[in-house]
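Morning run. Coffee first, then this:
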Amino acid sequence: MIKLILVRHGESEWNKTCRIQGHSDPELTELGREQAYLTADRLSGESVKAVYSSDLTRARATAEIIARSHGLDVTVTELLREANLGRWEGLTQAQAAEQYPEEFRAYRADPVANRPPGAERLEAVIARCRAFVDAITKLHDYKCTIVAVGHGGSVRGVIAAVYGLSPDVYRRIRLDNGGITILYLKDGKPLLATLNDTCHLTAQRQECGLEEG
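And here it is:
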């Protein structure tokens, strides 16, 4: 049985300023680094065999802090990237609504069918997260603990992939910066033990960007 500990990265500069992130690459804020250290402390008692991370800075920096406490290096993979949010990246919601009024109204009405201009389909996000799960289950034995640091989109994507959830349900999973989700993977029968645990965090800023970015 693989114990897969999924972590959403600490707060980034664009989380703080309410900008849509996607594949853009802002760094962690001071609060985000604090969240990463608190998460590392929370996971210090785990016998972690490997630490994986999205290749984006906000996730990689969080993963490196966690990995350091276990004497491990971070394995970086694009499979754990956030959803690409196209031409809205770098904008606030208000700016996206002003610059793309019709597209923004359509997105708000049905964000699964009406993606931001140039954005990745949610089905594609879930598919690459499925590829990540398939890769680690082939690479690691069934008696190990793995940490994977990603984003709201990719952590949801892993959950959706292992449970066969639709993109609409995928969007309804709340994940906070520094939140911990724990899955047990065994013989194709996943067990969700913990979802978005933030009890280890001393501070959490209210988010104001798109739910998935």
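Helices lie at 13-16, 30-42, 57-68, 93-99, 101-109, 122-139, 152-163, 167-170. Good start to the day.
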